[in-house]
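Hi, here's the filled form for the chain we discussed.

Project: internal
Contact: R.S.
Residues: 278
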Amino acid sequence: MDSIPCDAQWVLDEHRGLDVGSGPVLAAFAAQRARFLRTAAALDASQWQLQSRCVDWSVHEVIRHVRDAAKTHVAILAGQPHPFGGLESFHPASSPAKWLALSEGEPPQQTVAELTELVAEEARLLRVTAKQAPKVTWPGPLRRNLHWTVRSIHIFWDAWTHERDLASTLALAPAYGPGELRIATMYSLLAAATPAAWSGNYVRAVALLTGSPDSRYEITEEGGSVRVTSAARSPENLTGPADQVLDSLSGRGPHPRELLSGPAAEVEKLALLRAVAT
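And the returned structure, exactly as it came back:
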């Protein structure tokens, strides 16, 4: 599923999931998790303590956070209680730091060992869930109900983004397959469009992101569900460099208004995620 024809079109919808099925989601997880574990296993003692691109977190704290998020994902997939409390108490800007306080002083080897075990169990549970093909929606971390695949993609996107935080510190250049990059791009746009949806002021835009796997991405809404369509045929009204825009939407680097050309109202709506999640 990682070989994408240039004219292939996917739709990622909050309530309906990915229209081409869960296969690309599982493939994206497998690629990102394997790469991340290789990076963690290769770190020396000094690298664990380096400052990451996240201004408040070291390399070790970033990896512990990815481990904590994997732990919550496994619990969700297994139908078990949330390991850090219910979603009603979750806030994306503060809760992860509170989780980190619980593992302060943990040896790096313990972090890697636990993450390795969690990734294996996560992969098993993803395969089981995909085989059952449920059409259920679960509460997501951004106050919206999400199809189970979209809820899982959030965990992938979080780890993918934090992997980029490590890459800038460790001088790494992760190689993304087009399927993985497409899912990361589509979910970045969907997540960025979520805060505006809380008030019903939905984002409606077509973004041309240079350096992305597709020519254009359309952000819209159908039946109250935010959706992103790749390889959109509609003319773009937003343009910008893919790498920098994706980082910006997740709170890294310049504000989106400095990177995206187009209607200011739509850019500002997409920028709301920065205030919510960082």
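Let me know if anything looks off before we file it.
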